[in-house]
From TrEMBL:
Biased composition, class Gly residues, residue ranges: 45-57
Reaction catalysis annotation: Cu(+)(in) + ATP + H2O = Cu(+)(out) + ADP + phosphate + H(+)
Location of the region described as Disordered in the Swiss-Prot/TrEMBL record: 32-58
Keyword Translocase (UniProt): yes
Listed transmembrane segments: 315-336, 356-374, 386-405, 425-442, 581-600, 620-640, 939-958, 970-991
Protein name according to UniProt: P-type Cu(+) transporter
EC number of this enzyme: 7.2.2.8
GO cellular component, one term: membrane
EC supergroup of this enzyme: translocase
Molecular functions (GO terms): ATP binding; metal ion binding; P-type monovalent copper transporter activity
Family matches, as InterPro entries: ATPase_P-typ_cyto_dom_N, ATPase_P-typ_P_site, ATPase_P-typ_TM_dom_sf, ATPase_P-typ_transduc_dom_A_sf, ATPase_P-type_domA, HAD-like_sf, HAD_sf, Heavy-metal-associated_CS
Length: 999
């Protein structure tokens, strides 16, 4: 399970495995336009006969001897931002002569083209893409995969959806960037980029040019990166000496010093060196004057959040020191006679003591404590995308500067009675700071699942020291982050395994539930793999580290969850479209509100008795305009989707359901039909041979030798069962099977090979018939009998004659029937598609409660079945575990891979069920439905708040009731809306999976 888990997460984060599946995965891209003809009309192949057949067909051109076979080329396409862009590129390419097919991946920034080189070249395809306005470059697929990295940046200063859209656009249009995603909830950007074209430093510069501060979280090269803190006196000479000493170590690729933070960042090859070696070299090179240790802020995410929380808390507390006296002097003390007399005492002409005091107290709140809003508003206006900071700055400045004007006019007049709004601007800033403080606290809790996962790793590890003869000579307790590849770690009973590796001594039981979800402890002995973060229960183990740091399974899980939290759900486009025009419209509406009320006051269209004694119509209109600007900030709208997705993916991960982003979540909640594979999905997936029926006279062991020799190269579970059974017929532990030549495997049907002096075919009935092998009546009767018992009959033929039938049974998973029944109650239809025979399939289907069954299906037929269901209007999920399931997993709206399945299936899936339990299919769908209920309610609250709040702030109730919403109350309501949206999403943390009867 350790190897499987590791492979799972390596495949998840490297964006694709190797080998044949990579090709099939790329070709699975669905084109948006019909393919053009295979051969262009009226064009002759280069060097063709040029005769009267014009374009001819490919065969004719090939006969001429000058036609080349079709070729596949992959192009990097920069500048695509949406499906329309991808469609334009695809259409432009397909219009060229000699194009067989083309598919464009807008997220990956790639175009794959299948073409005939005799009619069109790579350069011509590149030109066609550039003609429609995009940059294109032919890429070497293998080289590209090595140079494509995933970078993460922490971006400071983003206030609302406008900010994220601006940053995302700038990054997406940068050369070399294939995909960029910016999340307001985490204040992070995830960028998939080509390091040959652009560097992480250039990406940071691109962000900072938009007016935001960017801090590098990871360059995507973390497999070989470490940040070390240096304690000691460092001058220019010692830095040069340190750099040369570290650079001289084998495997060190790059060394970068940050003298301000006393930090050194080192890129290295973990196979050749490690953190302990690096620390020792630094210490030795300086004769012990400089010590190095793990830099605690190497990740930096939590530290940035804590600093931001601290900054907002301090700003809010300082604002209270000034705002409370302002509030008291304007709202409370005016009702206490002796205090009122003191506050109304004239200082200069008509300027009173209270007005002067409020002016003095509000100034630091406006310009010192509130400078963040000025800076944010200035940067937003410079880039032409007004945001929340612009609305706040406009509202508070309008209130403050009008108050200054009013007070100065009173100071220069003998009869002008001033009315100030100093309490409006200062209280507004205070409430917004409080709201941001609470919002950041709440947002921090959305990623608690990641923190809990990271806490699984132990802080220390016991390193064993060996002499030259391989004997243990000592132990040393070290920081677990200093473990290097091939280190041997001692794990005591009750202790945590410090890194992924394999047991070289000892035996014990290890509780892997925190990683795999499997509650039963797993027995471990020499040669078995272990996973970092799991708990050793009873014996002592010596473990050789194989995957350390960011290569470990735990780190891969964390990275998968982080990437999923960055991925946007399609429903978020709704919020993005609204946010693009929201702030400008609000500013315009605020201005119109002020003009309308000011004009109404001038025309006396409302009774003067409604106007407060200290106000005129201009001042009243001003308050309405400020209230509209403040209450309409679209923060809640921007947080509605990402916060819910973050919490849901974290909750899913903690329950062993790894959801690869918002798109998978959104699709899962719409599922109304699930297609199940049988073997390894509805069944345990570990078939065992339960009976053997020989039809010819031969020794049973010899029969199995031939069958096992043919099946040894197959990955199918039935093949493995046959090989395992054959091993039991031999006394020696490592029996050598006869050599199999000319091996051919037909996925889901069987294998054939030349073994010794015989031609051996092992497979199902249809495979035998397609191989023109007659099946005797006796064999047919045995097959029917086995099918009725829900067993699979595997036919073995030698020299084109059936010689025996092997009966294999695969137990059904516990609660499979209950799961299917519960799905039915959720209005989700279940269908079983399997490559097994009809008799066994029907027996299994009847036992688990599935009525619709497709048997003897090849992998491509499974995918076709999924597509047919989609064409009928169904939203289809596919649950599978094998290589033969991967085409269907890709084709389905939602692919769910069983965690114990193959790496290819796991990579192709949208959701991974780590515990391999069928109950988690229900959990995945139910969690997605509850998540989107939260998202919809978030939108209802965010939009409803604006729909109701803006008219009230604009004074719609004022003519009939005299009620008005003071700006500082509007500010408090605006802050409360964002906090409430985040808290509503946080309630998902208490999600409980449905209780299935019988489980």
């Amino acid at each position: 399970m350790g190897a499987i888990t590791r492979a799972l997460f390596l495949s998840c984060f490297h964006g694709g495995g190797g080998g044949s599946f990579e090709v099939s995965h790329r070709l699975a891209l669905r084109p948006r336009y019909p393919s053009m003809p295979r051969r262009p009309k009226g064009a002759a192949a280069a060097g063709g006969d040029g005769g009267g057949r014009g374009g001819g067909d490919l065969e004719a051109a090939a006969v001429a001897g000058n036609e080349e076979e079709e070729k596949v080329a992959v192009f990097s396409v920069s500048g695509m931002t949406c499906a329309a862009c991808a469609g334009s590129v695809e259409k432009a390419v397909k219009r060229l002569p000699g194009i067989h097919d083309a598919a464009v991946d807008v997220l990956g920034g790639r175009a794959q083209v299948v073409f005939y080189p005799a009619f069109v070249s790579e350069n011509r395809i590149t030109e066609a893409i550039e003609d429609v306005g995009f940059e294109a470059k032919l890429i070497d697929e293998e080289v590209m995969e090595k140079n494509i990295l995933l970078c993460r940046l922490h971006i400071k200063g983003m206030a609302c959806k406008y900010c994220t859209s601006t940053v995302e656009f700038v990054l997406q249009t940068s050369p070399g960037v294939q995909r960029a995603s910016v999340a307001l909830a985490t204040e992070e950007a995830e960028i998939r980029y080509d390091r040959r074209i652009v560097s992480a430093t250039q990406l940071i510069q691109a962000v900072e040019e938009t007016g935001f501060e960017a801090i590098l979280v990871t360059t995507g090269e973390d497999r070989s990166r470490i940040d070390l803190k240096m304690d000691g006196v460092l001058d220019k000479r010692s830095l040069m000496m340190l750099e040369s000493s570290v650079q001289a170590l084998p495997g060190v690729e790059n060394v970068k010093f940050d003298t301000e933070l006393n930090k050194v960042t080192i890129l290295y090859k973990p196979d050749q060196t490690g953190p302990r070696d690096l620390i020792e070299v630094i210490k030795s090179a300086t004769s012990g004057l400089v010590n190095a240790s793990i830099y605690l802020e190497a990740d930096g995410r939590d530290q940035h959040r804590y600093r931001e929380i601290k900054r907002y808390r301090q700003s809010f507390l300082w604002s209270l020191i000034f705002t409370i006296p302002i509030f008291l002097t304007s709202m409370v003390f005016m009702y206490i006679p002796w205090l009122k007399a003191g506050l109304e005492k004239k200082v200069f002409n008509m300027m009173s003591t209270g007005e002067l005091l409020r002016w003095i107290l509000s100034t630091p709140v406006q310009f010192v404590i509130g400078r963040k809003f000025y800076a944010g508003a200035y940067k937003a206006m410079c880039r032409g995308s007004p945001n929340m900071d612009v609305l706040i700055a406009l509202g508070t400045n309008t209130a403050y500067f009008y108050s200054v004007y009013s007070v100065l006019r009173a100071a220069t007049s003998d009869n002008y009675m001033s009315t100030d709004f100093f309490e409006t601007s200062s209280m507004l800033i205070s409430f917004i700071l409080l709201g941001k403080y609470l919002e950041i606290l709440a947002k921090g809790k959305t990623s608690e699942a990641i923190a809990k996962l990271m806490d699984l790793a132990p802080e220390t590890a016991t390193l064993l020291m060996y002499d030259h003869e391989g004997n243990v000579v000592g132990e040393n307790e070290i920081d677990s982050r200093l473990i290097q590849k091939n280190d041997v770690i001692k794990v005591v009973p009750g202790g945590k395994v410090a890194s992924d590796g394999f047991v070289i001594w000892g035996q014990s039981h290890v509780n892997e539930s925190m990683i795999t979800g499997e509650s039963r402890p797993v027995a471990k002995r020499k040669g078995d793999t272990v996973i970092g973060g799991t708990v050793n229960e009873n014996g002592v183990l010596h473990v050789r580290a194989t995957f350390v740091g960011s290569e470990s399974a735990l780190a891969q899980i964390v990275r998968l969850v982080e990437s999923a939290q960055m991925a946007k759900a399609p429903v978020q486009k709704f919020a993005d479209q609204i946010s693009r025009v929201f702030v400008p419209l609000v500013i315009l509406f605020s201005l119109l509100t002020w003009l309308a009320w000011f004009a109404a006051g001038r025309l006396h269209s409302y009774p003067n008795s409604w106007i407060p004694p200290s106000m005129d119509s201009f001042q009243l209109a001003l308050q309405f305009g400020i209230s509209v600007m403040v209450i309409a900030c679209p923060c809640a709208l921007g947080l509605a989707t990402p916060t819910a997705v973050m919490v849901a993916t974290g909750v899913g991960a903690s329950r062993g359901v790894l959801i690869k982003g918002g798109h998978a979540l959104e699709s899962a909640q719409k599922v109304d039909c699930i297609v199940f594979d049988k073997t390894g999905t509805l069944t345990i997936g570990k078939p065992v041979v339960v009976d053997t029926r020989l039809l010819k006279n031969m020794v049973l062991r010899e029969f199995y030798d031939y069958a096992a020799a043919a099946e040894i190269n197959s990955e199918h579970p039935l093949a493995k069962a046959i090989v395992e059974h054959a091993k039991k017929l031999h006394l020696e532990e490592n029996h050598i099977w006869p050599e199999a030549r000319d091996f051919i495997s037909v996925t889901g049907h069987g294998v054939m090979a030349e073994v010794s002096d015989k031609s051996v075919i092992v497979g199902n009935k249809s495979f035998m018939l397609s191989s023109y092998i007659d099946i005797p009546l006796e064999a047919s009767e045995i097959l029917i009998e086995e099918e009725e018992k829900a067993r699979t009959g595997v036919i073995v033929a030698m020299d084109r004659e059936v010689v025996g039938i092997i009966s294999v049974s695969d137990p059904i998973k516990p609660n499979a029937h209950e799961v299917i029944s519960y799905l039915k109650s959720m209005n989700v239809e279940s269908i079983m598609v399997t490559g097994d025979n009809w008799g066994t399939a029907n027996a299994i289907g009847k036992e688990v409660g599935i009525e619709k069954i497709i048997a003897e299906a090849k992998p491509e037929q499974k995918a076709e079945m999924v597509k047919e269901l989609q064409l009928s209007g169904r939203t289809v999920a596919m649950v599978g575990d094998g290589i033969n399931d991967s085409p269907a997993l890709v084709s389905a709206d939602v692919g769910l891979a069983i965690g114990a399945g193959t790496d290819v299936a796991i990579e192709a899936a949208d959701i991974v069920l780590m515990k391999s339990n069928l109950e988690d299919v229900i959990t995945a769908i139910d969690l997605s439905r509850k998540t989107f209920f939260r998202i919809r309610m978030n939108y209802v609250w965010a939009l409803g708040y604006n729909v109701i709040g803006i008219p009230i702030a604009a004074g719609v109730l004022f003519p009939s009731t005299g009620f008005r919403l003071p700006p500082w109350v509007a500010g408090a309501a605006m802050a409360a809306s964002s906090v409430s949206v985040v808290c509503w999403s946080l309630l998902l943390r208490y999600y409980k999976s449905p209780k299935i009867v019988g489980s």
